[in-house]
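Now for a chain:

_____
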Amino acid sequence: MIESLRALVRQLYHGLFQHPVKVRKKFHTGDDSFGAYLASGSAYKPYDIPLSPASGTTINGYDYKTGKPIPGPLYSQQTSGFYNAAPYKIDSNSTWMFYNKLNVDIGAKTWLHNDIWYRYGHRLHNRYASFAVGAPNTNEYNDPHSETYGDKLWFDTRLPYNKIAFGGYFLKARDNTKNAFFSSYPPYNASRFVPNDKYRSDFLDVTNLSAFFQDKIHIAHSFDITPGVRVEQWQLNYTPYTTEAFPEASVLYPKGNQAKLPADSRSLNAVEPSVNISWRPIQHLAFFASYSEANQIPGFGGGGGPFQDIPGSSISLEKGQNYQAGFKVHVEHDGVLHHFLFSANWYFTRFSDQYLPITEPDGTVINAFGTSDYQGVNLYAVDNPIYWLHLFGNLSLQQAHFSNYYNGKENYSGLPVANVPDSTFNIGAYAKSFVDGFLLEPRIWVQYTGPQTLYDSITKSPSPTAKLPAYTLLNLALHSKIPMHLQYFRNIAVDVDLLNVAGNRYNSYEYISSGGTYGPNTKGDLIGLPGEPRTFYVSLTANF
């Protein structure tokens, strides 16, 4: 099975392209700009891979009916190769958007700003293989789309001791959930048009209206306080469309229809206050503190969740509350300190009423809910000790726990949040020099990512003890800018990046298996996703 998959992958086209375009026109009282952006990428997606061969998993998969491994070479990082994960899916994503930004001085120290935009996105995940040989859901054809348009209008006014900003915006979005699980192999012989397993294609229309007001008050030369408030309203309208999208499957395989609930709607509202305080007791030192709230609607899509499996009347907003306090030191020129900036801050963030969907290997979605708390310290420093050399570094220490977590069966309050490093550290430097009129920037930096809690697929919760080991990466780059000296062609930028120079082998993600992907024998095994090996990138950018 694996060799045939590798042969297929060699025939695949995979890549990424981006095309941003922007035109800006200045006039006496302001400016107006138009822009457009197109991006598309496609690549094969490999399976994650067992860390050890202890359970006897082979590259030929396992028998779906018996649950036993099919004889063949063992499949694990220790046997078949650290990076020899089997490809099973082609992922493609594309998006395009256009926008207009207008800024006008309307007098009386007041500016008018208006942003208007439209975006369309499409995703295609095409799965063509499964380790469960003979499963009814060997294939998956997931091709939903979304579109959003909106307008934001606001004003800012300068007064003797205040800077006031006020305005509002609206967003209109439509999301689709189209997906089909099926098997094109005997005895099912199904297709993405008539899937024999789970399928869906429903719509959620969201209208988001908001008004906001913010007042930056200069109480003294060295002291500012900025209170603000935002009022938001969401109108959600759900339309099941699965029967229309899959008419034959709805008759032949009615149990596979994941649109369990009828059309529904829900209206939600929130008031979001904020306040920021800044105090500068001496020239180079500033203290700051802030509090803010923000809300969002829970994620829509997948085979369960809001409207599809959870009635509209049970849907509530997810709420974020953030507290922050710290200080900054800024020195323009003093000895080896040039444009020196040091910042340190403490923060506490609470996400409450979270919807936390868990997708099983067979496409089933478990609806989990919780409240998570994040607390930590961030340190950041930059300096130009000499005019051509720039140094930077940052350190983050963090603790993340669920104060409440319920997966539909048990409450796991107090557990750490999975896949959140307890620390990260970055340090590096880059230099600037001109060679024959070309700007060259050689760069070097080191990235450290600390241990992370693993997700346990057996309990459907984070593990209280299992951790992903920490890893460190060394990276190099050479960025260059070549001037063109043409009226409408400013320069060309050529960037060369060499990541993970030492070729460290590490897993960027691990979890404890429930046996759903690689068979019952692997229940309790560690499954990992190999991190990026030594990688070489070259990019070319033209600026007009």
Remarks:
- Residues 297 and 387 are 48 Å apart (CA to CA).
- Helices lie at 2-10, 242-245, 247-252.
- The chain has three helices and 30 strands.
